[in-house]
Design brief:
The chain has about 140 residues and is of the alpha/beta class. The protein has a single domain, classed as Rossmann fold, CATH 3.40.50.1820. Helices cover about 30% and strands about 20% of the residues. It has six helices and six strands, in the order H-E-E-H-H-E-H-E-H-E-E-H. Strand 3, helix 4 and strand 4 form a beta-alpha-beta unit. Helix 2 crosses helix 4.
Length: about 140
Amino acid sequence: MDWWVNFNCRLVETDGVAGRVHAGFLDSIESLDLGAFLELRKTRTSHVVGHSLGGALALLLCAKFGIDSAVTTFGSPRVGDAAFSAGTVLRADSYVIEGDLFTQLAPKWLGYADNPGNRIVVAKAPHQVARVVWHLPWNYRKYIN
């Protein structure tokens, strides 16, 4: 399932956001029953956190539904094009390990741009072979406050 979501990477327009976003990520967000979450956020402060695909979904969820909450991602792939990144106002921190293969997807040559918010490079993968291994959550865990 996750791989189909990832590979469905054409850029599409949607209500509520500037620019175009990853079609697979959008389909995932739109398939969720968000009623309880959207109701709860009216009375409570929220902080949305995700790793990898979860980080991409966290960014898109908050952007699409105008959720005013802090967003923290670890190793998130790119979510949208330059218009999305420039036109999306989020309190977002995206932690990346330089060389983590998944933070370089979807590629810029397909029209994608870096995610909105602060991009924080926390380490550098020591060599090319480790690019996939460095994506694993425990490599990011030590950067959580």
